[in-house]
Structure formats: C-alpha cells, structure tokens
Design goal:
Blueprint: H1 9-22, H2 49-52, H3 67-93, H4 97-103, H5 106-119, H6 128-160, H7 164-198, H8 204-228, E1 232-238, E2 242-243, E3 249-257, E4 267-272, E5 275-280, E6 286-291, E7 302-308, E8 318-323, E9 325-326, E10 332-338, E11 341-343, E12 347-356, E13 359-360, E14 364-370, E15 373-380, E16 384-390, E17 398-406, E18 416-425, E19 429-439, E20 442-451, E21 461-466, E22 469-475, E23 481-487, E24 496-503, E25 513-520, H9 530-561, H10 585-600, H11 604-619, H12 631-640, H13 646-661, H14 668-682, H15 690-695
Parallel strand pairs: 2-9, 11-18
Antiparallel strand pairs: 1-3, 3-6, 4-5, 4-7, 7-8, 10-12, 12-13, 12-16, 14-15, 14-17, 17-18, 19-20, 20-23, 21-22, 21-24, 24-25
C-alpha cells in the first residue's frame, strides 16, 4: 500500500466507502480537472433523477489523500446534508410526516458522521455544529407540527360531534402548540440562514416552506380562538399601594366580557404573585381580592393579576397590573417534631409551624438541610408543615446539624432557619464480585455494593486490585451494580489471579467492605508460533485503520442520539444504555437555543417566554394533567412533589409572567439570568454566557 502522506488511512477508507456505496462523487468537467493534476475537484449533488443515477469510476483510496479530493468530498457531504434538510421541509409542508422525519433521521446522522471525519482532515473550517443543530431543530419542528395537526383533527371532530367541552380542551392545547410551532419555525429558519451563509447550500425553498407552514398554523389558530372562546376584561382597583404580609393587598375587582357583559355569580381563579386565589363574582361581575405577599421580590413595583379560566371554559383569560410597594416581614420557623437518629436511606421526619407574628403563612416551601446538604423540602399549608426527607450516603456518620430553612433572598418574607442536632448512624455495607477471563490480558469484573439489608447503593466508588496491584476504579450504578474490564498486570506469573474489590466508605455513613474472587488465566507466558504472530500482526494493521474510521463515525452518531454526559469508560459502573436519559435534550434544546438567539438579538421578552416553554416541556413528564394548569399552578405542583430545584422554576415563572403579561419589558440582564436558570433546570450543557453576548 502506498503511503497517504499526512492524511489518515481511516479517511482514505471512508472516501472509498463513499465512492463505492453512493456512486455519487463526481468531478465537474466544466470547472475542474482530475485530482492527479493537483487542481481542486468540484464535487456536487444534483437534484435530477438522471444525474443521481450517474456514477464515477472507483479510485484508489491513496489518491484521495490530496487536498482537492478531500475538500470535494466534504463539499458533496455538506450538499447532501443540505438536500436532506430541504427535502424534509418540503415533505412536512405537504403533510408527509414520516418522510419529513426520515429526512433528518438515521441516514442524516450517518452522513453527518462522515462529514465530521472528512472535515477534520481538511484545512478549511467545518460546519458540523450547524448541520447537527439544524437537524435537531427540524426534527422537533416536524414533531410539533404533526402534533398540532393531529390535535386539530381531534378538535374538529369534537366540534362536529357537538362535544363543546372536549373541543375547548383541544383548543387550549392548540394554543400551546401553535406558540411552539412559531418559536421552533423561526429557530429552524435561522439555522438555514447560518448554513447558507457558511456553505454553498441553497435552502431558499425550504426556508419558504417553513415560513408558510408557520404562518398557516398561526392563521388557523386565530380561527380556532374565535370559534371556541369569548374574550374577557379584568379590572382591579387597590385600596393602597404599600403592602406587606401584615398589610395585604386589598383590591376591588370586576370581570366582564369584551362587550361589557358581567361574568356574574361565578367562582373564578386569579393568578396573583406566585399563587392562585379563588374569588366569587356577584351579579354585577364584581369581587374583592385579598392577598398577602410571601415570595415576591422586594424590588417588585407591581403585581400581574391574571384571570385563569378552567380548561373547558368558554372564556379566554385576561390580566391586569396593580402597582405596589412591598415591605418585608420577619417569619418564624418552629420545630415541633424531628427524627433524632437517622441512617442511610431513612426518611427523616420534620414537623412544625411557619408564622409571622402569629399569622399563619400559607403555600411556601421550606428546605430540609442536613450538614449543609439539602436532602428534601416540605410545604407549608395554613402555617403548618409535616414531611420527610431521605438521608443520603454522602452524610458522614456521627453528630450532624439538621436545618429547616425558608431560603428566601430579598423577598416579601425574610429568610429564616431553625437548627437542631441529630445523630447519623453508620450502616453496614456488603460487596459481591465475579470475574472471568476476557482474553489473555484482560478480566471482566462485575459486582454489587449494597447495605446489610440488601439495598443497592448508587454513586459510590469501588477500587479494583489484581493480585494486590491496583488496576482501576468503578462507580456503582442503579441497584448498586458495577462492571468493567481491567488489564492483568505484567507482574502476574501464575495460572490464576485474585481480583479484590474495596469500598472504603470515606466521608459517608456506610461502613467499608471488601470482596474477592479467583480467576483462572491459564499458562502464563505461553508462546504462539511465529507464523501466527505475523498473520495476526497483519490483520491488526488492517483492523486498526477500519476500526479508527468506524470508531470516529460511531462517536458522532452516538453523540447525535444521546447526551454527551452519558459516555462512560470501560470502568464506569453502568453502560450508556443503562443510564437515565436527559429529561428532554431533543425536546428542549431547540427552545433553549432559540431563547439564546432571541436574547442575542435584543428580544429579551421573547427569550424569557421561550426559556419558560423549554422548562415546561422538560418537566412535563413529572406533572400530571399539566396542560390544564396556569404557570403558577404548574410551579406549585412541581414544588409540592418535593423537587429540590423548585426555586429555579419559581424564578423562571416570575420572569415569564412579566414577559408575557407585564407592561414593561424584561431587561436583558434579567432575561439572561432566566435563560441560565432554564438551562440548569433542563439539564442543558451549554456554557455560553448570554450576558456577554448581549453586550456585544
């Protein structure tokens, strides 16, 4: 085999595969000469069936080490990726949903992997990130459009059947989906623009298809809105502007339809602050609202009060703003009951009261903290809380401080804490291990770390030794299981080895444990005939080239299908398939990216609303019947389920309310902070500083 110069053998093999399998790498006779002349060869993807059926003669992979050919192949792959994006957009506009998904599916990711391999060997700048981003966004856009169409069909079927309640339920779902379509459609088109600006791709037709489809759905939703709902007007007149928990907001309210008809004698829901208040209108549609501020920021100068109809209601919601000035009040946490002794996985009980000068505080969340590690939350209802928090392994045994905190910062209620002392008892642990010979140089090890009672312990480090020599560590996964492959040390000379696993239990409340097993490895130092070694060496050389290419392509393909955070070494406690998936990377990433782009373009309100949409979608699986909830009901439900990051959702929800319903825009700094919180809550791995971008 001739040397390939500075180009890797793997890329040469890849190009050969492309030529053989696709038969579509062609030199443009009108503009380029053969690569053997040293000139650049133009590779193009044509759209006619006639040209697609043309093939080019197979070439020696060694000749493809030249810059011209590599750049040509890179150009062909970029053109192919652009074509698939365009085809997907056209299929989607024609209602061919499966074809639209396939266009950015497995074949698209395979081409993207090939593009990454080739682009990495050229002198130019590759655009794999742009193509990956566009594929992910378009995939989500296709799914949302399909979901809108299917829900629209259900809506129309309900109307035809005379089932008005079901029709209105679907109409409210369509409102949410239509907003997502608009956001995702804009994001897809921005990705098209990036690709067109940086490559020779022509995505004008796809851009138009996405634009027209987005506008069509917005028009359809306007008609749905007019068919299904009656617009309303909410007014509020407060008695005073300065309020506090001691001196609550008291306001006279009125709710009417847009044509002035009172919505009379109805119990209605009002979203105020971070809470929902229920009031009843009289015959004239009037009511009185009383509200004690609790978690609102002291810097707030107004409340947004929103009328929130029931899902089946004929009315559309409305909102109004009330100017306020908030004074802080000092609450007190009293602990009436606490578990005095706890151990690993115990449910530590806490019970008590939260009041302000004897007035019960309602609907706020307290953090339960053990040795400065938050282990749970409890909800205060009418001044009383009673709940439990699970003790993790990471708390050392011995005397420990347990705090119950109101973790507020510059809010209507001041932060407060009550601290007590508990004893954390040590829990016995057990290790089990099995090993078997993988080949003459490696051993496969599997085992489990559990408590004396048989409960698996996750997230702990176990050390591995072979005949007393340290060979690595593993991390326990779900159920306490671990596994990995270790190399046999050169110092081993016998026919068998002892594999020892050690759990040290440092800085935990679990006791140390060890376990060992014997693995037969056969005759040490056995020699093979020279002819076999030579044949094996030749095969290894060939396999190395193929394996390197296949490895690089597989890494890219797996990266596009699963979060990067799921990659594991051979000594990791779990395989990638065993790890829990990212809550919604393919679902929420396009929305987070859209929010980032909106923020960069100075659209802080849009960025805030899109950030909230990403969070709501990411957490949807954890909340039952969440589509029928207001933003504050959704927050409280999430918080009441004991989520430790509910405070992030609260801050994001506050920003969303201001962006969606407030008269003044959210500042760039506030929108940037909300996006960062959304990324944290969604499990995003992005690290770009939006504040810095916004300042550009």
């Amino acid at each position: 085999m001739n040397p390939v110069g500075s180009r890797s053998f793997a890329v040469a093999l890849l190009i050969t595969v492309l030529v053989v399998t696709s038969g579509m790498v062609m030199a443009n006779p009108a503009s380029a000469a053969d690569s053997d002349t040293g000139h650049r060869v133009t590779v193009q993807q044509n759209n006619t069936d006639e040209k697609r059926n043309e093939t080019t003669p197979h070439r020696n992979p060694d000749t493809y080490s030249e810059d011209g050919d590599l750049n040509s192949v890179e150009g062909w792959l970029a053109d192919r990726l652009s074509t698939q994006l365009g085809d997907g957009a056209i299929h989607l506009s024609e209602g061919e949903y499966e074809l639209a998904k396939d266009s950015v599916g497995e074949d698209y990711h395979e081409r993207l992997g090939q593009y990454v391999d080739v682009a990495g060997e050229t002198d130019g700048e590759g655009y794999e990130d742009e193509f990956e981003e566009a594929g992910e966004k378009q995939s989500r856009f296709s799914e949302t459009v399909q979901e809108y169409r299917e829900t629209k069909n259900e809506y129309e079927a309900a109307r035809e059947a005379g089932n008005e309640e079901r029709a209105r339920e679907r109409a409210r779902e369509l409102e949410t989906l239509a907003n997502e379509v608009e956001s995702l459609g804009g994001s897809v088109r921005e990705s098209y623009d990036k690709i067109e600006n940086r490559t020779n791709a022509d995505l004008a037709e796809a851009n138009t298809a996405v634009k027209n489809l987005t506008e069509t759905i917005q028009t359809e939703q306007t008609a749905v809105r007019e068919q299904s709902f009656v617009e309303t007007e909410l007014t509020l007149t407060p008695e005073r502007e300065t309020i506090s928990f001691h001196d609550p907001l008291v306001a006279a309210g009125e709710l009417r339809t847009a044509n002035g008809t009172p919505i009379a004698n109805k119990e209605i829901r009002l979203g105020v602050g971070t809470h929902t208040e229920r009031v009843t209108t009289d015959a004239a549609g009037t009511f009185t609202l009383e509200y004690r501020p609790t978690d609102e920021q002291l810097s707030s100068d107004e409340f947004t009060v929103q009328y929130v109809p029931k899902t089946q209601s004929v009315y559309l919601g409305d909102e109004t703003n009330v100017s306020v000035s908030i004074e802080q009040a000092e609450p007190t946490v009293a602990l009436n009951e606490v578990s005095r002794e706890v151990s690993y996985s115990d449910e530590a009980a806490v019970a008590g009261e939260l009041t302000v000068d004897g007035i019960p505080v309602d609907d706020v969340t307290l953090a339960v903290v053990l040795e400065e590690e938050q282990i749970g939350t409890v909800t205060v209802t009418d001044g009383v809380f009673n709940g439990t928090a699970t003790v993790p392994a990471s708390i050392p045994d011995g005397e420990a401080e347990l705090d119950v905190r109101l973790p507020f910062d510059d809010q209507a209620l001041a932060a407060t804490t009550n601290t007590t002392t508990v004893i954390v008892r040590e829990t016995q642990s057990e290790l089990s291990v099995e090993g078997e010979l993988a080949d003459n140089q490696e051993i496969t090890v599997n085992g489990t770390l559990s408590t004396g009672g048989g409960d698996g312990v996750e997230g702990q480090t176990v050390r591995l030794r072979v005949d007393g020599t340290a060979v690595g560590t593993v991390t326990t996964g779900a159920g306490g299981s671990f596994g990995g492959t270790v190399s046999i040390p050169d110092s081993v000379s016998g026919n068998d080895v002892t594999v020892t696993t050690v759990y040290e239990g440092r800085n935990t409340n679990l006791a140390p444990a060890t376990a060992e097993t014997v693995v037969m490895i056969g005759e040490a130092g056995a020699q093979l005939p020279t002819s076999i070694w030579l044949a094996g060496g030749f095969l290894v050389l060939i396999a190395a080239g193929l394996g390197f290419w296949w490895y690089r392509r597989s890494v890219v393909a797996s990266t596009s299908d699963s979060p990067a955070g799921n990659r594991q070494s051979t000594l990791d406690g779990t395989t990638a398939a065993e790890k829990p998936a990212d809550p919604s990377p393919e679902t929420v990433t396009p929305l987070l990216e859209r929010a980032h782009e909106q923020l960069t373009n100075g659209r802080s309100d849009d960025a805030t609303r899109t950030s909230y949409a990403a969070v709501r979608r990411a957490l949807a699986a954890q909340i039952d019947t969440q589509d029928a909830m207001t933003h504050w009901e959704f927050y409280r439900t999430y918080r009441n389920e004991g989520s430790t990051d509910a405070e992030l959702l609260q801050e994001i929800t506050q920003g969303y309310e201001r962006a969606a319903f407030g008269r003044e825009s959210v500042s760039t700094d506030e929108a940037s902070g909300i996006l960062e919180r959304a990324r944290t809550l969604c499990g995003s791995n992005e690290s770009t500083s939006d504040s810095a971008l916004a300042d550009d």
